[in-house]
# Entry
Amino acid sequence: MSVSASWYLTLAAVLFTIGAIGLLVRRNVLVMFMCVELMLNAANLTFVTFARRLNDIAGQTAVFFVLVVAAAEVVVGLGIIVSIYRRRPGATADDVHGMKG
Amino acid sequence: MTYVLAATIPDAITFVIAAAVCVLGALGVVLARNPVHSALMLVMTLFGVAVLFVEEDAQFLAAVQVIVYAGAIVVLFLFVIMLLGVDQKEAIQRDPLPAQRPVAICVGILGLVEVLLLARGRWPSGARSVSGAIGSPGDNVGLIGRSIFTTYLLAFEVTSALLVVAVVGAVVLARRPRRVLGENGAPTGALVEPDDEIDGPEVAGLDDADAGTVDTGAAGSEPGDSERGGGGPGGGGPVDDLADSEVTGP
# Structure
């Protein structure tokens, strides 16, 4: 008998919180991006946990699609980061305010 | 005591170790000063999550997690970090929102507590989907494949379109618009791309290293400024030299 689903969901919530806090606290664009990956992984863990809990393969299929979207997101995001760093070296997230966001 | 965490001893030990690895890696991602260390800590978290996937009968996803995430995405992160030579310490001299960090930590912890309190009731709700049970005959890969290629076939096709768009976007973003030469090798002014005037002050900003990173691009592009305005035409100088050298090169 494996560990009950509540522990997995608690761990996923903790991971998501750490990722969200890191996204809000850090200024380095690359580290902020890694925190987004942490949050995606927490969501994946939740999907897999519910797939086992509900005995339904659709949760694992959703994780598959999340992986694909995460890969595409990383490619485009890192392209944007590279182009930003090419324009102005040493930029942090607060320096990129060209659109007055 | 046979049952810890409502599970047998090996399962409980595996879960506790993998969870500790995950949480420590996540904290390392957030707290590490060096972005390279953050990326390596991210690998640690991803391996922990992969172990938990195996523990939850998702063997295919565990393999994909290690291959795609730890093998491709983190390597891409490390490539970008090494290529850019990112500054190791964060420039927080100019903090526009000084109260953001404590507020962010408080809001995050409040959100976590709220989720954990709300989750004291029954977790799963809603109707079952029709894509098959995990315990049905066949291995994990076969089940996921059958689910993807039957129930979620449209989403799978859209995924391919998404990947194509991502590849095209990456190529467009990473392309260097520095082609100012004509067909016969002569520099033609008409072919200078409009973002070349953004590239010019960037070269000037690279030359004087202690000029700071803030607003060199905006100040350099203003023709009226006398001191920094030298960056505008002066910044155009290295580009033109580059173009001339490219003419004499081939």
